[in-house]
Amino acid sequence: MAAPDRNMALEMVRGTEAAAMAAGRWMGKGDKNAADAAAVLAMRNMLNSVAMDGEIVIGEGEKDKTEFLFTGEKVGTGDPPSVDIALDPIDGTRLTSLGLPGAISVVAVSDKGSIIRPPYMFYINKIIVGPEASDVIDIEAPVEENIQRVAKRKGKAVDDVTVVVLDRPRHEDLISEIRKAGARIKLIPDGDIAGALLTCKNQMGTDLLIGIGGSSEAVITACAIKAFGGNMQCQIWAKDAHEAARAREMGIDLDKILGLDDLVKSDNVFFAATGITDGEFLEGVRYEGSFIRTSSMVVRSRSGTIRYVEGIHRPQKLALISDVDYLKGI
């Protein structure tokens, strides 16, 4: 038997913990830009300490729009392995700034050249399920049919199926279809990635996520869903005729169905997430005087192992070995 090799998710979680601890100080203070900047600097500082030759393929934006963790930036020590990195220091900056539940910090890592770089100007329409119903979804089928298929596979009544939908005006027709089918709806204000993760944990009582969200968030979500063993189908979505024409000029096929393997080609995916504000999946950061407590999860697709990690951090000691001021507020 081969010895277990390196699980990079256990190293990536240090980056999501750092981002969460830095961002959590800004919870409810109404300044999402300050929260994001703090999370970016903390995550970057930690990722640069990891032995890897990493390139960010999904990041904060292009180099001319952001200073750190931009798409194309190299992170890590420069040593092997060479990897693609998809990250979001805060999935839910508005949630953090308003003190609302569900904000998380996420990092996904996969083999070099395996994570697609999506066209950022477009949105992606997607349907997502957890492992139990991974083989029954079809994005081209009616919403009602997908709900019925998932209900049958999971051995429950349609009335007991819960669908996560991002609360946006563009989803009015989708919401009507779900209600007509008889399923329950869980509307989320933000946090597309966190919403998708709910489908992969039975205790959450969530069965599907359907709807249109950002393209970069969709790719990070694909990394997470692949690590969990769930399934996802999607299509690039143009909001109007002008955008559709632009897509055709760029050679984008709006009718093409993209599966997990189109978004993440490798089966060796690592995913880590840490709660920033309290959510159904992960608890938020707790500042307890001389301690900071974090709640995280790490997943590796090759082994299928899911770990939940409670971190108890001593900011006084972190201050001696880090460029990040974790002592702020003490």
Please state the CA-atom Rg, rounded to the nearest Å.
19 Å
Q: Output mean pLDDT.
A: 92
How many strand segments? 14
Helical stretch count?
Answer: 10
The major pleated sheet works out as: 8 strands, mixed
Label the overall shape: globular
Which structural class do the helices and strands define? alpha+beta
Q: List low-pLDDT spans.
A: none
Distance between the termini: 49 Å
Helix content class: 25-40%
Task: Tell me the strand percentage band.
Answer: 25-35%
Topology:
Blueprint: H1 9-24, H2 32-47, E1 53-58, E2 74-75, E3 82-91, H3 93-98, E4 104-111, E5 123-129, H4 143-154, E6 162-166, H5 172-181, E7 184-188, H6 192-197, E8 208-214, H7 215-228, E9 231-237, H8 241-249, E10 258-259, H9 260-263, E11 270-275, E12 286-288, E13 291-300, E14 306-313, H10 315-321
Parallel strand pairs: 1-3, 6-7, 6-8
Antiparallel strand pairs: 1-2, 3-4, 4-11, 5-8, 5-9, 9-10, 11-13, 12-13, 13-14
